[in-house]
Design goal:
heterodimer, A: about 110 residues, mainly beta, five-stranded antiparallel sheet, about 0% helix, B: about 110 residues, seven-stranded mixed sheet, four-stranded antiparallel sheet
């Protein structure tokens, strides 16, 4: 079956760095997306990886290892507005997104 | 403002009633999706449409139906609502269905079936 595993909740301090891990098992693979979702709002796109390695986009970076079925999202210089849920979503062989339950990130001053 | 709009934003519905959730996008995207999001679970795909005139079943289609008469609109109908359909419903669209096609989401419809 298809399965996504990511921590339920993480806490970090403003200004620090946090890494949110995601492991996945899917039927085929066509890349992996990370989305951010603030409480009560819609998910918004953060990043996409289809090849192994690190993709950097400002304060956010995303890493992929296809052989390990593993990705992480790295957030630097944390700000209070980064408090949100982060959703890992690999795309399967049918180009359908398989969504994890999300990691709720709490930023403390 | 270009984007994807859902209506209503919230609704309390008596069990057994019929309800249609509306979704409209003005980005001329080919693909559209309906998801439900429940606490502790990931987004689950209900139905999708890769292009106008076609629809497909997702992971949890039972109790729901959709239509795609044109590019812009993708309504979701609950024929006879049950309490287990209490959820937050998100409509989304993407330019296509291939790789690296970012999905854009509506603001969601919070539905409570009592």
């Amino acid at each position: 079956g298809q399965n996504i595993d990511q921590p339920t909740e993480m806490t970090a301090t403003e200004g620090a760095i946090v890494q949110i891990n995601c492991t996945y098992q899917t039927s085929g693979f066509n890349g992996l997306f990370w989305y951010q979702q603030h409480a009560g709002e819609a998910p918004t796109f953060l990043s996409y990886n289809v090849l192994d390695g690190l993709e950097e986009k400002g304060r956010f970076s995303s890493f992929l290892s296809r052989s390990k079925g593993y990705s992480y999202l790295l957030l630097k210089e944390l700000q209070m507005k980064d408090s949100a849920s982060y959703l890992c979503a690999p795309m399967d062989s049918n180009y359908q997104l398989i969504w994890g339950a999300g990691t709720k990130l709490i930023i403390k001053p | 403002i270009a984007g994807i709009t859902q209506a209503p934003t919230s609704q309390i519905l008596a069990a057994g009633r019929r309800m249609t959730l509306r979704c409209t996008q003005d980005m001329r995207h080919n693909a559209m999706y309906w998801y439900r999001q429940d606490l502790g679970l990931g987004l689950r795909l209900i139905h999708y449409s890769n292009t106008a005139g076609t629809t497909g079943k997702g992971e949890v289609p039972d109790g729901y139906s959709v239509s795609r008469a044109n590019t812009d609109d993708f309504p979701l109908t609950l024929a006879s609502a049950v309490p287990s359909q209490t959820s937050v419903y998100f409509c989304a669209s993407s330019e296509g269905t291939g790789v690296e096609t970012e999905a854009f989401f509506g603001q969601g419809t919070r539905l409570t079936v009592v």
